[in-house]
C-alpha cells in the first residue's frame, strides 16, 4: 500500500510582487533539507495571476508546484474583459488550480459556474483544488452534510477523472476568524465527504480531502492525528515562509 502523501497548499490571495519569490526560495530550501519527511508531502503555492509565469518558470524542475487561484468559466478567446481562461493559464506552465473558493462564491460564483470551471480545467489537464464548505447559518441550522453533498453533486459528474480533483473542505465560518472545528467535528465531516464521493460517483478511488480555515501551526498540530485528512489549504500563514514552514514542522513533530 502506497504511503499517504499530504498536501500543504498556500493560497496567497491578493498578495505578492515579483520579489515575493524569496518566500518560495526559503520554503524550497527547507524542503530540500527536510530529508526525513519531504517524500511524505507536496508543497503547492498559489500566487496572484501576475506571478504565475515567472514562478512557474523558476520552479519548473523543482519540487514546489505553482497553482492558479481561479479562472473564467469560458475557454475561448472573446469579449471577457479582465478574465483569464484555463487554456491561457495552462500556457504559463501551471498544473494546479483552485476552484470554488468561498471568497469567490461570496462574490456571486454559483454551483453552475463552478461546474463549468471544473469541466474546463479537467479538459485542460489541470489538477483541481475544489473548495466546499458550509457558512455560519448553515452550520447553526445543522445543514452541513446537506450543503456539502449538494456542492459535490452540483459540480462533479461520474465521468470526471476524480484522481485529478482534490477536495478542500473550508467551513466559511472559520476562514479568517481564528475559529476552527474540533478534531471530532472535522474528522466526521471528512469521513462524510469521502464516503459520499465513493458511493455517489461509484468510484474505488480514495478521494483526497484537505482542510482550510484559519490554518496555523497550532491547529495543524491539533489535527495531525486525523488519518483521513490529506493536508491543508493555508491562507494568511502562507504569506510568511517561517509560518508556512512551522506548519509543516508541527505536523510532523
Automatic annotation (TrEMBL):
Keyword Mitochondrion: no
SUPFAM superfamilies xref list: Triosephosphate isomerase (TIM) (SSF51351)
Keyword match Nucleotide-binding: no
Organism field: marine metagenome
One Pfam family linked to the record: TIM
GO MF annotation list: triose-phosphate isomerase activity
GO biological process: gluconeogenesis; glyceraldehyde-3-phosphate biosynthetic process; glycerol catabolic process; glycolytic process
Membrane spanning stretches: none
Keywords noted in UniProt: Isomerase
Lineage, opening ranks: unclassified sequences, metagenomes, ecological metagenomes
Name the record gives this protein: Triosephosphate isomerase
Record's GO cellular component terms: cytosol
PANTHER family in the cross-refs: TRIOSEPHOSPHATE ISOMERASE
Alphabetized PROSITE patterns for the sequence: TIM_1, TIM_2
Amino acid at each position: 500500500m502506497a504511503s499517504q502523501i499530504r498536501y500543504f497548499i498556500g493560497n496567497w490571495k491578493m498578495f505578492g510582487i515579483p520579489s515575493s519569490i524569496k518566500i518560495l526560495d526559503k520554503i524550497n530550501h527547507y524542503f530540500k533539507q527536510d530529508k526525513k519527511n519531504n517524500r511524505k508531502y507536496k508543497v503547492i503555492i498559489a500566487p496572484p495571476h501576475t506571478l504565475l509565469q515567472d514562478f512557474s518558470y523558476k520552479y519548473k524542475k523543482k519540487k514546489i508546484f505553482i497553482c492558479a487561484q481561479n479562472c473564467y468559466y469560458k475557454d475561448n478567446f472573446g469579449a471577457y474583459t479582465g478574465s483569464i481562461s484555463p487554456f491561457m493559464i495552462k500556457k504559463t506552465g501551471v498544473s494546479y488550480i483552485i476552484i470554488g473558493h468561498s471568497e469567490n462564491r461570496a462574490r456571486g460564483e454559483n454551483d453552475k459556474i463552478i461546474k463549468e470551471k471544473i469541466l474546463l480545467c479537467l479538459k485542460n489537464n489541470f489538477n483541481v483544488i475544489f473548495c466546499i464548505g458550509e457558512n455560519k447559518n448553515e452550520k447553526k441550522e445543522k445543514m452541513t452534510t446537506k450543503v456539502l453533498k449538494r456542492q459535490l453533486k452540483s459540480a462533479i459528474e461520474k465521468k470526471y477523472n476524480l484522481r485529478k480533483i482534490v477536495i478542500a473542505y473550508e467551513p466559511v465560518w472559520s476562514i479568517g476568524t481564528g475559529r476552527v472545528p474540533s478534531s471530532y467535528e472535522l474528522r466526521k465531516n471528512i469521513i462524510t465527504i469521502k464516503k459520499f464521493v465513493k458511493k455517489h460517483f461509484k468510484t474505488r478511488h480514495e478521494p483526497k480531502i484537505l482542510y482550510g480555515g484559519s490554518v496555523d501551526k497550532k491547529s495543524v498540530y491539533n489535527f495531525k492525528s486525523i488519518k483521513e485528512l490529506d493536508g491543508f489549504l493555508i491562507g494568511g500563514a502562507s504569506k510568511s515562509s517561517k509560518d508556512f514552514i512551522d506548519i509543516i514542522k508541527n505536523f510532523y513533530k
